């Protein structure tokens, strides 16, 4: 059993932390990089490390919905529902990879999934929905800012987790 699980056995404690991280995610959702790309996912990626992958998925998914809502669902509600599911899955995978390997590999996987993978999943959906920004244009417009935001969110989550982990020892 790793040290994180020893310190946070109580479900109530995990739920309190989860609520606090969702609130922090809301604050991050107000710090926009481009459109509905914001600093909302850092708490989700941190939760995946600190509380476990399932809690990270919950925080990351809710964090995106908060960002989408504060942005007016710029890409339509159906697209933001898909992104919410992506964020939850990617935070979960990030947490699992971190537990099984290390922060560097998990960060690379998280940035690639969230920055490039999500756009490749969404591009055909944007075309199918006939959004003004769709297909290849959507990919070109979103990959760089989303990858940058993903890197910032994930690296911050890892740094904060490492600081807290050191202090807990």
UniProtKB/TrEMBL annotation:
One of its GO terms (molecular function) is transmembrane transporter activity. Coiled coil: none annotated. The chain crosses the membrane at residues 15-33, 45-66, 72-97, 104-125, 137-164. The keyword NAD does not apply. Keywords: Membrane, Transmembrane, Transmembrane helix. This is ECF transporter S component. It comes from Anaerosalibacter bizertensis.
């Amino acid at each position: 059993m790793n040290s994180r699980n020893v310190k946070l056995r109580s479900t109530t404690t995990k739920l309190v932390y989860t609520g606090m991280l969702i609130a922090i995610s809301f604050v991050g959702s107000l710090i926009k990089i481009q459109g509905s790309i914001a600093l909302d996912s850092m708490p989700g990626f941190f939760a995946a490390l600190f509380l476990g992958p399932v809690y990270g998925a919950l925080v990351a998914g809710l964090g995106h919905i908060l960002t989408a809502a504060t942005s007016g669902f710029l890409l339509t509600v159906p697209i933001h529902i898909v992104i919410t599911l992506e964020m939850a899955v990617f935070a979960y995978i990030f947490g699992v990879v971190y537990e099984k390997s290390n922060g560097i590999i998990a960060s690379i996987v998280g940035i690639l999934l969230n920055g490039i993978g999500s756009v490749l999943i969404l591009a055909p959906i944007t075309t199918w929905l006939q959004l003004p920004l769709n297909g290849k244009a959507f990919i070109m417009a979103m990959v760089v800012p989303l990858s940058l935001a993903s890197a910032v969110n994930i690296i911050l989550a890892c740094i904060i987790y490492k600081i807290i982990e050191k202090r807990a020892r």
